[in-house]
Amino acid sequence: MRNNGKVLARTSVAVGASVVLAATTVSTAQAAARDGHCDAGEFCLYWGNERTESLSDFTGSISNYGDSQPTCYEFKGAGRGINTCVKNNAISAWNRTKYKVTVYYNSGYGGAEMTYYPGTWGNFVPELLNNNASHLFRSL
User: Fold this and answer.
1) Distance between CA atoms of 55 and 8, rounded to whole angstroms?
2) Could you read off the pLDDT of 27-78 as tens digits, one per residue?
3) Interatomic CA distance for residues 124 and 111, integer angstroms
4) CA-to-CA distance for 115 and 117, rounded, in angstroms?
5) 73 vs 36: CA distance, rounded Å
6) I need a surface site. Which of 27, 65, 77, 115 has the fewest CB within 10 A?
7) In Å, how far from its chain's centre is CA 23?
């Protein structure tokens, strides 16, 4: 009996630790996604030149940024542009993911495009400057 009690106690501790770890992982992931900070693993669009002003951070592809509140993706970070819809208002981007990310002129991944490779950043080409509606994550 005593031996079974020790095994059960160890199992309970291991299960309890797993639950705590899982809960911590989920809350950390939720805190990092769409929080107005450009964290590792995110693709970020900026309202201003050279990664300045308010930003909007993403962890996946978006086929349509949306035209108006309350259904659009907005700039969340501090600075000019905060709470403005991203669509047709972004000027620069930073790719902090392990994917190549292509920004498109049109919704649905169409029209003029510009690709950011992992770790790169910069202002949009003239065709996309304040004319951007979607982005697509793709494997290298």
Assistant:
1) 49
2) 334 436 799 999 999 999 999 999 999 999 999 999 999 999 999 999 998 9
3) 14
4) 6
5) 12
6) 27
7) 21
